[in-house]
Amino acid sequence: MNQIKIGKFIAERRKLVNLTQFQLAEKLGVTDRAVSKWETGRALPDSSIMLDLCSLLKISVNDLLTGEVVSMENYNKELEKNLIEAVKQKQEADKRLLFMEFAIGIPAILLFLGLIMIAAYVPMKTWLRVVIIVSAFAMFLTACFFAVRIEQVAGYYECKHCKHKYVPTYKQVVSAMHYGRIRYMKCPKCSKRSWQKKVVNKD
Q1: Which of 39, 103, 126, 192 sits CB 3.0–4.6 Å from 11 for a disulfide?
Q2: Which residues share a beta bridge with 139?
Q3: Is 3-70 a CATH 3.40.50.300 domain?
Q4: pTM flag (> 0.70)
C-alpha cells in the first residue's frame, strides 16, 4: 500500500465533501493532527475508524486502501491485492513485536537481577535497600506486563488437534502453563486443551 497516494486521496475526498481537517477529525473522534498525518502519508487511519472514515468520504475501504476510486472491472483484483498487502503488513508488524518482546524481556531480567544483587551485597541504609528492591520488582512486573501483552496480540496460537489459529485473551495467556512461546490452552473451536505453538502466519 502506498501511504503517500492514500494520504493524497483522503485529502482530495475530504475537500470534495466540503470538510476541513478539523471537521473530519471531530466527526471521527480523533485530532486534526491525526488527519494531517494521514494526508501527508506519515500514518494510516486505524482499522477501528476506517469504515466511518470511508462513509464520510463516500468511498469504499477498497478505494481507500488503493488510494483511488476503483472501477467495478478492477474491483476484485484490487481487493485481493489490498488483502494480501494487509496480511503481509500484519505479519511484518507481528515479527517486529515478537522481537520487541525479547528486547524488553532480556534487559528487564538483567536489570532486575542487577538491582537485587546490589541491594543484597552492597552496604547501604535499610530504607535505600527497600527502595531498590521495590523499584526492581516494579520495573520487572511492568516489563512482564508488556511482554505478555505482545505475546498475546502478535501472531496466533495453533491448536494441536484441529489446527485452528486464533488470538487468545490476555487472561488465557497469563494463566496458561508455558515454556518459551508454547502454551497449554483450550482451543475456542474444538474446545480441546493442548500445547499450542505461537505462529506468525494465519494460513
Answers
A1: 39
A2: none
A3: no
A4: no
